[in-house]
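Quick illustration, no need to memorize.
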Amino acid sequence: MTTQFQRIEEKEVSIEEKLRALYELQSVVSAIDKIKILRGELPLEVQDLEDEIAGLKTRIHNLEDEIKTIETAISNKKIAIRESQALITKYTEQQNNVRNNREFDSLAKEVEFQNLEITLSEKRIKEFTADQTAKKDAITSSKTLLSERLEDLNRKNRELDEITEETRIEEEKLKSKAEKIEFFIEPRLLTAFKKIRKNARNGLAVVTIQRDACGGCFNKIPPQRQLDIASHKKIIVCEYCGRILVDEKINQLPDED
Protein backbone atom coordinates (compact mmCIF):
# COMPACT_ATOMS: atom_id res chain seq x y z
CA MET A 1 0.00 0.00 0.00
CA THR A 2 1.40 3.43 -0.96
CA THR A 3 0.78 6.32 1.41
CA GLN A 4 -1.50 8.77 -0.40
CA PHE A 5 -0.70 11.81 1.71
CA GLN A 6 2.19 13.66 3.34
CA ARG A 7 2.34 15.92 6.39
CA ILE A 8 0.93 19.34 5.56
CA GLU A 9 2.93 22.14 7.19
CA GLU A 10 1.50 25.31 5.68
CA LYS A 11 -2.25 24.72 5.67
CA GLU A 12 -4.89 23.34 7.95
CA VAL A 13 -5.50 19.61 7.64
CA SER A 14 -9.01 18.96 6.35
CA ILE A 15 -11.46 16.45 7.81
CA GLU A 16 -11.17 14.53 4.58
CA GLU A 17 -7.41 14.19 5.01
CA LYS A 18 -7.81 13.20 8.65
CA LEU A 19 -10.27 10.48 7.70
CA ARG A 20 -7.97 9.24 4.98
CA ALA A 21 -5.05 9.15 7.45
CA LEU A 22 -7.10 7.25 10.03
CA TYR A 23 -8.27 4.76 7.42
CA GLU A 24 -4.73 4.11 6.21
CA LEU A 25 -3.42 3.85 9.77
CA GLN A 26 -6.11 1.25 10.45
CA SER A 27 -5.04 -0.69 7.36
CA VAL A 28 -1.40 -0.68 8.49
CA VAL A 29 -2.02 -1.70 12.12
CA SER A 30 -4.43 -4.39 10.95
CA ALA A 31 -1.62 -5.80 8.79
CA ILE A 32 0.63 -5.80 11.89
CA ASP A 33 -2.13 -7.59 13.80
CA LYS A 34 -2.22 -10.29 11.12
CA ILE A 35 1.51 -10.88 11.59
CA LYS A 36 1.00 -11.25 15.34
CA ILE A 37 -1.85 -13.68 14.72
CA LEU A 38 0.50 -15.65 12.47
CA ARG A 39 2.81 -16.06 15.46
CA GLY A 40 -0.19 -17.37 17.33
CA GLU A 41 0.11 -18.11 21.02
CA LEU A 42 3.84 -18.81 20.83
CA PRO A 43 4.99 -15.64 22.65
CA LEU A 44 2.58 -16.38 25.52
CA GLU A 45 3.62 -20.03 25.57
CA VAL A 46 7.27 -18.99 25.74
CA GLN A 47 6.53 -16.58 28.60
CA ASP A 48 4.58 -19.25 30.50
CA LEU A 49 7.45 -21.72 30.08
CA GLU A 50 9.99 -19.13 31.24
CA ASP A 51 7.88 -18.41 34.33
CA GLU A 52 7.50 -22.14 35.09
CA ILE A 53 11.25 -22.72 34.65
CA ALA A 54 12.04 -19.82 36.98
CA GLY A 55 9.62 -21.30 39.53
CA LEU A 56 11.19 -24.76 39.27
CA LYS A 57 14.71 -23.35 39.71
CA THR A 58 13.58 -21.44 42.80
CA ARG A 59 11.90 -24.57 44.19
CA ILE A 60 15.03 -26.67 43.63
CA HIS A 61 17.20 -24.00 45.25
CA ASN A 62 14.89 -23.79 48.28
CA LEU A 63 14.78 -27.58 48.64
CA GLU A 64 18.58 -27.78 48.49
CA ASP A 65 18.81 -25.15 51.24
CA GLU A 66 16.29 -27.09 53.34
CA ILE A 67 18.31 -30.30 52.87
CA LYS A 68 21.45 -28.51 54.08
CA THR A 69 19.52 -27.37 57.15
CA ILE A 70 18.34 -30.95 57.77
CA GLU A 71 21.89 -32.27 57.35
CA THR A 72 23.06 -29.80 59.98
CA ALA A 73 20.23 -30.86 62.30
CA ILE A 74 21.10 -34.57 61.84
CA SER A 75 24.76 -33.82 62.51
CA ASN A 76 23.84 -31.95 65.70
CA LYS A 77 21.68 -34.85 66.89
CA LYS A 78 24.53 -37.32 66.27
CA ILE A 79 26.83 -35.09 68.29
CA ALA A 80 24.19 -34.98 71.04
CA ILE A 81 24.00 -38.80 71.02
CA ARG A 82 27.79 -39.10 71.38
CA GLU A 83 27.73 -36.61 74.24
CA SER A 84 24.94 -38.55 75.96
CA GLN A 85 26.86 -41.82 75.47
CA ALA A 86 29.95 -40.23 76.99
CA LEU A 87 27.92 -39.05 79.98
CA ILE A 88 26.38 -42.50 80.41
CA THR A 89 29.89 -43.99 80.50
CA LYS A 90 30.95 -41.34 83.00
CA TYR A 91 27.93 -41.81 85.28
CA THR A 92 28.21 -45.60 85.12
CA GLU A 93 31.85 -45.42 86.23
CA GLN A 94 30.91 -43.04 89.01
CA GLN A 95 28.31 -45.53 90.29
CA ASN A 96 31.17 -47.85 91.18
CA ASN A 97 32.56 -45.29 93.60
CA VAL A 98 29.40 -44.02 95.34
CA ARG A 99 29.22 -43.79 99.12
CA ASN A 100 25.50 -44.42 99.52
CA ASN A 101 22.31 -45.47 97.76
CA ARG A 102 21.16 -41.87 97.31
CA GLU A 103 24.20 -41.04 95.16
CA PHE A 104 23.75 -44.29 93.22
CA ASP A 105 20.08 -43.55 92.53
CA SER A 106 20.94 -39.99 91.48
CA LEU A 107 23.50 -41.25 88.98
CA ALA A 108 21.03 -43.91 87.77
CA LYS A 109 18.51 -41.17 87.03
CA GLU A 110 21.17 -39.28 85.06
CA VAL A 111 21.92 -42.42 83.04
CA GLU A 112 18.20 -42.94 82.43
CA PHE A 113 17.80 -39.31 81.33
CA GLN A 114 20.71 -39.58 78.89
CA ASN A 115 19.24 -42.80 77.46
CA LEU A 116 15.97 -40.95 76.90
CA GLU A 117 17.90 -38.15 75.20
CA ILE A 118 19.55 -40.72 72.93
CA THR A 119 16.17 -42.28 72.09
CA LEU A 120 14.68 -38.86 71.35
CA SER A 121 17.67 -37.87 69.20
CA GLU A 122 17.48 -41.15 67.26
CA LYS A 123 13.75 -40.54 66.69
CA ARG A 124 14.45 -37.03 65.42
CA ILE A 125 17.21 -38.34 63.14
CA LYS A 126 14.73 -40.80 61.60
CA GLU A 127 12.23 -37.98 61.06
CA PHE A 128 14.90 -35.71 59.58
CA THR A 129 16.17 -38.52 57.34
CA ALA A 130 12.64 -39.26 56.05
CA ASP A 131 12.10 -35.56 55.38
CA GLN A 132 15.50 -35.37 53.69
CA THR A 133 14.64 -38.35 51.46
CA ALA A 134 11.29 -36.78 50.50
CA LYS A 135 12.99 -33.51 49.60
CA LYS A 136 15.66 -35.28 47.56
CA ASP A 137 12.91 -37.13 45.68
CA ALA A 138 11.18 -33.77 45.12
CA ILE A 139 14.43 -32.32 43.76
CA THR A 140 14.86 -35.28 41.42
CA SER A 141 11.32 -34.95 40.03
CA SER A 142 11.68 -31.16 39.79
CA LYS A 143 14.97 -31.48 37.90
CA THR A 144 13.37 -33.99 35.53
CA LEU A 145 10.47 -31.62 34.92
CA LEU A 146 12.90 -28.69 34.57
CA SER A 147 14.84 -30.58 31.91
CA GLU A 148 11.62 -31.28 30.01
CA ARG A 149 10.51 -27.66 30.24
CA LEU A 150 13.90 -26.41 29.05
CA GLU A 151 13.59 -28.65 26.00
CA ASP A 152 10.07 -27.33 25.41
CA LEU A 153 11.32 -23.76 25.75
CA ASN A 154 14.15 -24.32 23.28
CA ARG A 155 11.72 -25.82 20.78
CA LYS A 156 9.19 -23.01 21.19
CA ASN A 157 11.91 -20.38 20.92
CA ARG A 158 13.16 -21.94 17.68
CA GLU A 159 9.62 -21.92 16.28
CA LEU A 160 9.11 -18.32 17.39
CA ASP A 161 12.48 -17.23 15.97
CA GLU A 162 11.66 -18.82 12.61
CA ILE A 163 8.28 -17.09 12.40
CA THR A 164 9.68 -13.80 13.71
CA GLU A 165 12.52 -13.84 11.18
CA GLU A 166 10.09 -14.54 8.34
CA THR A 167 7.93 -11.55 9.27
CA ARG A 168 10.49 -9.22 10.91
CA ILE A 169 11.32 -7.07 7.89
CA GLU A 170 7.68 -6.73 6.88
CA GLU A 171 6.64 -5.84 10.44
CA GLU A 172 9.42 -3.23 10.76
CA LYS A 173 8.31 -1.59 7.51
CA LEU A 174 4.70 -1.53 8.66
CA LYS A 175 5.63 -0.10 12.08
CA SER A 176 7.71 2.60 10.40
CA LYS A 177 4.80 3.41 8.10
CA ALA A 178 2.38 3.54 11.05
CA GLU A 179 4.67 5.98 12.89
CA LYS A 180 4.76 8.29 9.87
CA ILE A 181 0.98 8.25 9.61
CA GLU A 182 0.59 8.85 13.36
CA PHE A 183 2.84 11.91 13.01
CA PHE A 184 0.32 13.31 10.53
CA ILE A 185 -2.65 12.80 12.91
CA GLU A 186 -3.31 15.28 15.69
CA PRO A 187 -2.64 13.87 19.21
CA ARG A 188 -6.25 14.12 20.42
CA LEU A 189 -7.58 12.19 17.43
CA LEU A 190 -4.78 9.64 17.62
CA THR A 191 -5.53 9.02 21.31
CA ALA A 192 -9.20 8.49 20.49
CA PHE A 193 -8.25 6.09 17.66
CA LYS A 194 -6.06 4.01 19.99
CA LYS A 195 -8.72 3.93 22.69
CA ILE A 196 -11.41 2.74 20.26
CA ARG A 197 -9.02 0.19 18.77
CA LYS A 198 -8.14 -1.20 22.20
CA ASN A 199 -11.80 -1.78 23.07
CA ALA A 200 -12.98 -2.89 19.64
CA ARG A 201 -13.25 -6.45 18.37
CA ASN A 202 -10.30 -7.41 16.14
CA GLY A 203 -8.68 -4.05 16.86
CA LEU A 204 -10.87 -2.24 14.31
CA ALA A 205 -11.27 1.44 15.16
CA VAL A 206 -12.05 2.63 11.61
CA VAL A 207 -14.50 0.68 9.45
CA THR A 208 -16.25 1.20 6.13
CA ILE A 209 -19.97 0.99 5.47
CA GLN A 210 -20.80 -2.41 4.06
CA ARG A 211 -24.27 -3.15 2.64
CA ASP A 212 -25.68 -0.06 4.36
CA ALA A 213 -24.34 -1.23 7.73
CA CYS A 214 -21.40 -0.54 10.05
CA GLY A 215 -18.47 -2.72 9.05
CA GLY A 216 -17.71 -3.34 12.73
CA CYS A 217 -20.97 -4.18 14.48
CA PHE A 218 -23.14 -4.61 11.32
CA ASN A 219 -25.96 -2.39 12.56
CA LYS A 220 -27.82 -0.52 9.82
CA ILE A 221 -26.75 3.04 9.01
CA PRO A 222 -29.59 5.41 7.96
CA PRO A 223 -29.32 6.78 4.35
CA GLN A 224 -28.91 10.40 5.49
CA ARG A 225 -26.09 9.43 7.83
CA GLN A 226 -24.42 7.56 4.98
CA LEU A 227 -24.54 10.74 2.92
CA ASP A 228 -22.96 12.67 5.79
CA ILE A 229 -20.19 10.06 6.03
CA ALA A 230 -19.59 10.18 2.28
CA SER A 231 -19.32 13.98 2.35
CA HIS A 232 -16.17 13.80 4.53
CA LYS A 233 -17.15 17.02 6.30
CA LYS A 234 -16.93 15.65 9.84
CA ILE A 235 -15.75 12.62 11.74
CA ILE A 236 -18.74 10.35 12.42
CA VAL A 237 -18.76 7.38 14.77
CA CYS A 238 -21.18 4.46 14.88
CA GLU A 239 -23.86 5.13 17.48
CA TYR A 240 -23.85 1.43 18.40
CA CYS A 241 -20.17 0.44 18.67
CA GLY A 242 -18.34 3.79 18.67
CA ARG A 243 -16.10 2.99 15.70
CA ILE A 244 -15.15 5.73 13.23
CA LEU A 245 -17.13 5.33 10.01
CA VAL A 246 -15.83 6.00 6.48
CA ASP A 247 -17.15 5.21 3.04
CA GLU A 248 -15.47 2.62 0.83
CA LYS A 249 -14.10 5.30 -1.53
CA ILE A 250 -12.25 7.24 1.19
CA ASN A 251 -8.83 6.04 0.08
CA GLN A 252 -9.51 6.61 -3.62
CA LEU A 253 -9.86 10.36 -3.28
CA PRO A 254 -7.22 12.54 -4.96
CA ASP A 255 -4.98 14.66 -2.75
CA GLU A 256 -5.86 18.33 -2.39
CA ASP A 257 -3.45 20.78 -3.92
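The longest strand covers residues 206-210.
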